[in-house]
Design goal:
Number of domains: 2
Shape: elongated
Structural class: alpha/beta
CATH topology of the largest domain: Rossmann fold
Helix content: 40-55%
Largest sheet: 6 strands, parallel
Oligomer: single chain
Strand order of the largest sheet: 3-2-1-4-5-6
CATH superfamily of the largest domain: HAD superfamily/HAD-like
Length: about 230
């Protein structure tokens, strides 16, 4: 086996990337429950994205309450509970495996290849994660909000390889190029691979600082191609 471990991104790689429309519709539903002005709420929600990602807000409720305080809006416990549930439902649905994801992960495990995950995300995915079909197939899952680090910080990659007990050069990193993750993986000595399905390239997908257009490294178009690389 050429590599001892394969580390995956989550959104856009193992699951479909967020649809911008679905993402905004979910926020609109939350805003309606909270009786907040959409544009102002959306602005602060985006501004606090990094804080969500590194766990500054210990949970979703803290983030919502912060925004409402900034907007000088008083909300009830029930409004907070309902808005939280809308967001949880959206994220839970988003964690539906991509086609071939479970098959590929199962095959890697059967071959004795270690599997890992590095995801820039809020505190919501780690809560839902144990109930997903991914959990038994991923040896080490590193969520940015749980460790206070986010890609492309080199420390988050090193943390994953340390927990997997492998060296970076013995790892494949598979991602869709969000948050400069591929360059981050390359800079610590990993072997990064861009997964890019042309069918997913549209203005309606929500990517942060995508590096897909400038990527000169290896590119695959489906998860099954990972099996040809190990």
């Amino acid at each position: 086996m050429k590599y001892k471990a394969v580390i995956f991104d989550l959104f856009g790689t193992l699951v479909e990337i967020f649809s911008r429309q679905e993402y905004e519709n979910t926020l609109a539903e939350m805003v309606s429950i909270l009786k907040a002005p959409y544009d102002e709420f959306y602005k602060i929600w985006i501004q606090t994205a990094d804080q969500r990602s590194i766990g500054v807000f210990r949970n979703l409720e803290e983030n919502i309450e912060y925004i409402c305080r900034e907007l000088k809006i008083s909300i009830s416990d029930n409004q907070l509970k309902l808005a939280r549930q809308v967001r949880f439902n959206f994220v839970a649905h988003s964690l539906t495996p991509k086609k071939d994801a479970i098959e590929v992960l199962s095959h890697l495990k059967s071959k004795g290849c270690r599997t890992g995950l590095i995801s820039n995300c809020s505190t919501v995915p780690p809560i839902i994660w144990p109930d997903t079909p991914f959990a038994p197939l991923i040896d080490v899952a590193v969520f940015s909000s749980s460790v206070g680090l986010q890609k492309p910080d080199p420390h988050i990659y090193h943390l994953a390889t340390k927990r997997l007990s492998v060296k970076p050069e013995n790892c494949l990193y598979i991602g869709d190029g969000d948050s400069h993750e591929l360059t981050g993986a390359l800079n610590v000595g990993m072997n990064p691979v861009l997964i890019r399905n042309p069918d997913e390239d549209s203005a309606n997908v929500l990517r942060v600082n995508p590096e897909t257009e400038k990527w000169n490294g290896l590119i695959i178009s489906s998860l099954k191609e990972v099996l040809n690389l190990i």
